[in-house]
Amino acid sequence: MNAFASSASLHERVSQLNDLTSWQEVAETGERLRLHPDISLMTLQHLIENLGREALKHQKYQIANDYFIELEELTAVNPVSDAFYKAVKSQGIAAYFQASYTQSTLAYHRALKIATLRDKPLEIANMHSNLGLAYTQTHELDLAILHYVSAHQLYQQHGDTQDKADIMLNLSGVYIRQLRYNIAEEMLLRAIKLFNELQDDYGTALSQANLGVIYKHTERWALSRVSLMAAIDYYESVESWQHLSFEYANLATLSLLEGNIEQGLTEANFALYYAEQANSQGGRREALYPYAQALLAQGQYQQAKESIQEAIILAKEAGAALRERDSLLLLSFIESSLGQPRQALANYQKYQRLQSKLLNTSLSKRLEQYQDTIAENQLSQEIKTLKQYQALQKLQIEQREQLVWLGALFILSLGIAGVSVYRKRVLQLTKTELSRQVAQRTAQLQQVADELREANQVKSQFLANISHEIRTPLTSILGHTEALLIDNQRDQNLQSSLRVVHRQGEHLRDLICDVLDLSKIEALQFELEFTEFELESLINDVSDMFQHACVLKGLKFVIHNHLRESLVVELDYIRLKQVLINLLGNAVKFTEAGSIQLTITIVEGGVEFVIEDSGIGMDEIYLQGIFDSFQQGDNSISRRFGGSGLGLSLSQQLVDMMGGKISVESTLNKGSTFTVLVPCVPSSTPSKIDKIEGLKEFKALSGKVLIAEDHDDNRSLFCRLVSSLGVDVIVANNGAAAVEVCLTDFPDLVLMDIQMPQVDGLEAFKILRQAGYDGPIYALTANVMPKEVKAYLEHGFTGHIGKPISTDHLHQILAKHLMYIDEISAMQIDMSDLKASFLATLEEERYNIVDLWESRQTKSLQNACHRLAGAAVTFGFNDIAQTAKQLEQVVITTDRMQAQHFYLILCDELKVAASSEQLNVI
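RESULT FIELD:
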């Protein structure tokens, strides 16, 4: 019992060693406890471990090393115990702080093996990190990086914030040695942030010291001094003499760079003092280098030589090859200044050999690494490259040797230039590698884009084919159904069945149109056509369409029109109407009782349409995908109400193309509210094209007008329109004839088609102006896009007249350039014969387009499409005109599949129109 109590008391007294303030007290108390007769083996191990730890704490590194060697011997019976692991690891720490880096790496490797046997991930990571520190000091950067990477991987899995901050700090040291200051600086700033969060002042001080080194090398000297002084303030507060010796050595080097020799010498003396206090050979070695530089600058050559020779000896002992190399170069300068050229040359050659050795060592390690990681064919190329690089380095060394005798100052300048070249080469290699990676990634993205484009083309081809296959028989179905409806008006039973067939056929046609519209939008080939119109007319059209449908279902249809009268907007009338029809159609479809309300309001920046119903509504889940293609609330809704689920998706994309926004609010079993906001600038100015009832009367005009148009039906119509106002008309069917007639008869006004055979409208315009004709010339064309109109005006045309022609607009232009007479002319033009003539040519036009397509006569096909588009829009066949125009634009591109898509649609539309004419349903 007494022995146990005595042992417990001794263990407590050993633990109390941590409370003693001076090393002398710790050492004396420890020795007394070692000699105690009742001390057990376990207590002795505990005592030796505490004495070693306290020796490290008081910077007695050699004494600490002796204690840990003794602890290793005491615990060798259990080589995987905590005490044995700590003993070996702490020997490495003591050696590291004595700048004995070779001994330190040996101890750390032993500790790493023990940690691996103990299967402790964090201990393994710590040893990898410590090995990285030691290899960084010996400038074996490849090995340092390997160990840091291993540590980082383990810390990511098992470490905490402290571990991650430590490894970031350690890695920054490698990047500093590699002159990659930007990366090192970024890592240190992140590490400082983590250390501050952890309230780790020691880690912060280490990071500030490394930042000071970076700022020194990047010539930000004021920042360097601030960072180094911040680290020094902390080290002085904790009396860390070892660190103070290193940081004062850095301060001395900084002062020498700034040209402050006296201050540099003082700071070097401080560094030597603190190294002596810490009994640190590493600190003395680092302090002697700037100390010798300062003495050299003051002309104290002999004392400088003695100091740098001592630094070389200490560097060799520690394995600090970089410091040894730099010291040899400085020694050659000093001996040159002492008038000892032979000794200077000998030491400079030592410097060169050591430099070559360091380079060869680094290259050899890189070769070994490549041999383990790449295939044999790649390895041969890399070895060849590295050997060339090594030969280049040797050549540079030989060149430097030839320039030694030019003087010490010149050699120093050459060394600085060499460092600069090396840094630039590293940066260039980095940029080259980055460019290669960017190019590779760009190629991958391009490949993905090509695959997506090919998939989209396949989809477009499929849609074109399926449209062709469905629309062809559908055209016949609708045409014959309409003919039967006309022929069998008295048979009500048959009429009812025919109406069902006709209604379902129209539904199928609308579905095909929606799919094609979505396809065009996705392919970015869908264009809006903005025109000026009265908003009231749009509301009336929509009201007329749905008033009867609501009455049939017993619904109340209410329109709240908050617009002022004659409000004019510039939007795509057809597509805005399509959106409202989709939304109101859904409202009527999904509402069994109650009301449908349409509210139109002028808001800031545009017009707002609100469609509210009292129908079945939707819950939050269905609202999330309500605007997706082929989506409805659920399968039961599709079964009950029908529909494809395309209407809302198409409406949203159309509103987006107008720059607007569509949103929905809905409550299940209570109804839904759709809001459409379309940006525009409403005005009260009357529309350019007013809807009128009855006959329009105009004052007759006097003058001569030339109409140049290659399409026979169009030319006949324009001639009839103009001559009805009392104007003399002369015609030409191509650009060459237009030039000849114009220069012979000198008309008061020329209406010039753009695309004509022999000489087109643009070339004819140019010839007329060069020939001296200065009368007004208007572009008469179906090309009405703003950019196209702008191009005609920039070319020099007086103005633009779009097809189909507005009689008001035509009369305004004629009145602007011709003389009024007193007669009143009623512009009532009977176009039935011209329209019939145009319809009769459609089948011939289709055969012509098929021939041109199959023979790949691109230019002729383009001209035929342009001529057909102009004529079709004149006689009200807008679908044919739009498709012909799209084929005209895409046929000259390399996108053959997209061209085929429009070609098939155009052939269908021409066949539909021709068939309808034969059935007399147009």
